[in-house]
Design a protein that fits this description.
The complex is a heterodimer of chains A (472) and B (299). Chain A is mainly beta and 472 residues long. Chain A is built from four helices and 24 strands. In chain A, the strands form three sheets. Chain A has an 18-stranded antiparallel beta barrel. Chain A is globular and about 85 Å long. Chain B is α+β, with helices and mostly antiparallel strands and 299 residues long. Chain B has one domain: outer membrane lipoprotein receptor (LolB), chain A, CATH 2.50.20.10. Helix content of chain B is 21%, strand content 43%. In chain B, strands 1, 2, 3, 4, 5, 6, 7, 8, 9, 10, 11, 12, 13 and 14 form a 14-stranded antiparallel beta sheet that branches. The longest helix of chain B is centred in the N-terminal third of the chain and has 18 residues. Chain B starts with a helix and ends with a helix. The chains are: A mainly beta (472), B alpha+beta (299). Strand 2 of chain A pairs parallel with strand 2 of chain B.
């Protein structure tokens, strides 16, 4: 926690850096009176026009955007989690992340109709970061390529080949149609799905018609949600090793297409896809010897999405019909709380509905509710068997944001829970843009859960995080 | 950037020839007609136009009796393409792409603005982090919606708006001098319906009699206290249109100011309809290729 205080002090120094202020300027009180004329010299911004002659002189460095960040986060509440009567797990305040990161993005339209885009990230895990501890108290460096695609656009067509994401659905944050990409929620610093999406190798073809668009994709190498990283808050020691899917046994391929049309005040889409569930299903190895067996779950998806803007209100609606999904697709071996998987394929219907409301131009509030249910859920079950998800299950997500000081300060709040009201995650965040390069953000997260939710292990946690960012 | 002002001598000459008769009849114009001509000039700057702008915002103070920035200004640069549609080209479709600062590079906004009060304006935003185009709930002319800030600056959509003159009482207060130029001092007062959507109870404009450009605008709140002041400077003939290349708006309540500098403005550009669609937001290869074609028209 001392580190958090240290960072706060450093940040204050940056904010109060005299270089950001001008000397000898009389600062006026708010609401100072301006009677009659006052002198304003436009030469203050004259430099903008001097820059004219050099504006077309581009450097290859202009194609890069680099963001360097230092993040600290931790659990701050000393408490215990009652697992069973008379038995609780102590949860002590501790630093969880202390990491220096760099995100690099490159975008270059190198010839008419051609574009190369790539992005990557490097993380250096420093003292007391959970990945530092997992590496035996040594500094660990991790790098990862994110986007990497070549795009060719001509006439009404655009073709992109490479690592990329495809996002479907209108509801922000928890759409039932946002299932093309795999995700990684490695720790509580990644709450929003927008930050968790992973890129995959795909061929994407967009056709921009006169009145409507088609967007189709083929995933040439479907991947799956990565297992929790050792040492991370979500890691638990499995009874058997969780391995990747054995690709030698079959060829995997995903494909889908979306038709989209915009009307005045509304956009609608229809989509169809053949997909694999992003989460692998693990089964105990034969004879209970060796690694867990990873099973894929392929299914067909039919979807529809729409939005409707009515003044300051935007309504969102997503509908997904999944054919032949595994009834229990989520299962980890060795976790006593979960029953043995049931090898039943069923149809599932899901919907997410939500709204966004612009309270003012600075404040918005949004709500998204996602609900899913298996059709004919009891059919095929043996006496005594039950499904992990019975009836209607899903989640809800509420967000509020307020931009202040000409967008320099953004205050946001997120509430996230499940429909059964077993858990609630409350987040309060603030991001302050210090200048064109520097920004600082902070978050407080509080988790409430009963013993019906996996979030029980984080119940009563109070988590703080601070991130300082330099972009150029 | 090419300096197109001297190199467009012929266009400028034509522009002046057009404006000279205007000047001679200017004395006979009513307040409403003056405002209509001012709006025509405003619209001309965004119709079939390619512009590059710099928006600078800072907290201001006073040094040696002059208003100046009290901190290093926050600077955003953006490129914008617009085109008029509908009856008398009074509807506008435009795309704006942020070029700087680096953290916001590539953010794009597509806007359809309708002159007709009953039609909601439409806005779509593309953020690469979001991975898709998102329709924005922005409020309609009929709603009691406060005008939005333009990319975090002190300029609001209301300050940039054209049209809907029927919703104002327009009075010619006097003919006077501003910045050494002969101007009309015109007051606009929104009617009850318009007032619900406006931050201003009254606006006073100082309009250059020769060039139909605002040199100064004072905005007053409901207590008739001046809350904002806009100053136009560097008035130059760009492609036959008089433009205040540097416009500064001062928020006299929060003591923040924003300057909008038109670094480039080219009108009469043949903007294909396909460019003013959502494709421009998502398809960067298409966008850059089309922008190059638009720029080539200037060369």
């Amino acid at each position: 926690m001392k580190k958090l205080a240290g960072l706060a002090a450093t940040t204050l120094l940056v904010i109060l850096n005299p270089a950001n202020a001008q000397d000898d300027v009389l600062i006026l009180d708010n609401d100072a009176q301006f009677d009659g004329d006052f002198i304003f010299d436009d030469d203050l911004f004259g430099g903008a026009f001097d820059e004219d002659s050099s504006a077309n002189t581009r450097s290859w460095l202009d194609d890069f955007t680099i963001k360097i960040s230092q993040q600290f986060s931790g659990q701050t509440n000393n408490h215990g989690i009652k697992i069973t009567p008379g038995f609780s797990i102590p949860r002590e305040a501790e630093l969880e992340t202390n990491r220096l990161g760099a995100n690099i993005r490159y975008q270059n339209a190198f010839a008419p109709g051609w574009l190369l885009q790539a992005s990557a990230q490097i993380r250096i895990y420093l003292n007391d970061d959970y990945q530092y501890r997992a590496e035996g108290d040594s500094v660990d460096i991790e790098s990862r390529g994110n986007e990497f695609f070549l795009q060719r656009s001509f006439d009404q067509h655009s073709i992109k080949l490479g690592r990329q994401t495809v996002v479907w659905g209108e509801t922000s944050g928890n759409s039932v149609l946002d299932v093309i990409n795999t995700t990684e929620f490695r720790d509580f610093n990644i709450i929003d799905i927008e930050d968790a999406r992973l890129n995959q190798w795909m061929l994407v073809w967009d056709y921009f018609g006169e009145n409507s668009n088609f967007s189709s994709f083929v995933n040439l190498y479907p991947e799956f949600n990565p297992a929790a990283v050792r040492g991370s808050p979500f890691f638990f020691e499995p009874e058997f090793n969780l391995t990747d899917y054995d690709r030698d046994s079959s060829m995997l391929l995903e494909a889908g297409t979306q038709w989209r049309k915009s009307f005045e005040g509304s956009d609608i889409s229809f989509m169809v896809a053949y997909l694999y569930e992003n989460q692998l299903r693990y089964e105990d190895p034969a004879m209970r010897i060796g690694d867990a067996v990873a099973k894929t779950n392929d299914f067909f998806l039919l979807g529809f999405s729409a939005n409707r803007a009515i003044g300051k209100l935007l309504l969102n609606f997503d509908l997904a019909y999944s054919h032949d999904v595994l009834a229990d697709s989520f299962n980890f071996p060795g976790t006593a709380s979960l029953a043995n998987p049931i090898n039943l394929k069923k149809d599932q219907i899901g919907s997410s509905v939500g709204f966004e409301y612009a309270i003012s131009n600075e404040q918005t509030v949004s709500l998204g509710i996602q609900a899913q249910m298996l059709l004919d859920e009891d059919e095929g079950l043996l006496p005594g068997q039950s499904l992990i998800n019975e009836g209607v299950f899903g989640s809800w997500l509420m967000r509020y944001s307020n931009t202040l000081m000409n967008n320099d300060l953004v205050i946001s709040s997120t509430l996230q829970g499940d429909l059964a009201a077993n858990s609630l995650l409350a987040l309060l965040g603030a991001e302050y843009t210090i200048n064109d390069n520097w920004a600082i953000g902070g978050q407080i997260i509080n988790i409430t859960s009963n013993d019906e939710s996996p979030l029980l292990f984080f119940a009563e946690d109070v988590r703080l995080s601070v991130t300082l960012t330099y972009s150029f | 950037m090419q300096n197109n002002i001297p190199s467009r001598g012929l266009v400028s000459l034509i522009g002046i020839l057009f404006l000279l008769p205007l000047q001679s009849i200017a004395q006979d114009l009513s307040a409403r007609e003056i405002m209509e001509k001012l709006e025509d000039t405003r619209r001309a700057t965004s119709n079939s136009a390619l512009s590059r702008m710099q928006l600078s915002t800072c907290k201001f103070g006073v040094r040696e009796g002059k208003i100046t920035c009290a901190e290093r200004p926050r600077v955003k640069s953006l490129e914008s393409v617009g085109k008029g549609y509908g009856l008398n080209l009074k509807d506008t479709r435009s795309v704006a792409i942020l070029l700087d600062p680096p953290a916001e590079r590539g953010i794009g906004m597509l806007s359809f603005s309708y002159d007709e009060g009953a039609r909601d304006n439409e806005t779509w935003l593309y953020l690469s982090a979001l991975g898709r185009v998102k329709r924005i709930a922005s409020g309609s002319a009929d709603d009691e919606t406060e005008p939005g800030s333009l990319f975090g600056s002190e300029f609001t959509t209301e300050d940039q708006d054209t049209g809907k003159l029927d919703e104002y009482e327009i009075n010619l207060l006097e003919e006077t001098l501003e910045s050494g130029r002969e101007v009309w001092k015109i007051e606009t007062i929104p009617n009850e319906k318009r007032a619900r959507q406006s931050r201003y109870s009254r606006t006073v404009l100082y309009i250059d009699k020769e060039r139909f450009v605002e040199l100064r605008v004072e905005m007053y709140d409901q207590y008739d206290k001046e809350i904002k002041r806009m100053l136009g400077a560097r008035v130059e003939l760009m492609n036959g249109i008089w433009v205040a290349r540097s416009t500064t708006i001062m928020n006299l309540v929060t003591n923040r100011l924003s300057n909008m500098a038109f670094l480039e403005m080219h009108t009469g550009i043949d903007v294909p309809d396909e460019f003013l669609t959502q494709r421009t937001l998502t398809d960067a290869a298409f966008r850059e290729t089309e922008l190059e074609k638009l720029r080539a028209q200037i060369d």
